Amino acid sequence: MSMNNAPQHADSRRVFITGATAAGLSAALASHAPQAAAASDPVKLVCTLRRREDLSADEFYRYWLYEHGPAATKQLKKLGAYRYVQSHTNNADLNLLFTASRGQVGQAFDGVTEVWFPSREALVKALASREGAEANAWLAEDERNFIDLPRSSYFFTKEHVLLG
Hints:
- The chain has helices at about 10-15, 20-30, 55-80, 90-100, 120-130, 130-145; strands at about 45-50, 85-90, 110-115, 155.
- By secondary structure, it is of the alpha+beta class.
């Protein structure tokens, strides 16, 4: 499929981060997932995050790691996640040099979250359950405590490991 004909996924990402009903999210995942990928293939949620402007970097990282992290882990397990990784941006000078060497402008992300699920089918099924819907709603609500949601991005991926 050419880029011009690619489906728009912004709506499905927004559904996830605003805590839509599990049925709505399940439908969005089922209808927007790439058809080339088997429904039983592992799927990874990637979140590129920017902190709320009213929080310092230290406040953001502390809340994300020590408050949100442990509680989110419990909620993600209810959704069937088997891996959850937070990558916090560090070494601002090196980041600036690297991004400048690539001609990038604009504010960098404060970090990345990665969450692995066994399959699209398993995730859709979990989101359709009462426990999964409650877990998703909790995650969406708590994210508002530290993430600038309109300036962040959430998307599902399929990994293609080329080294490692």
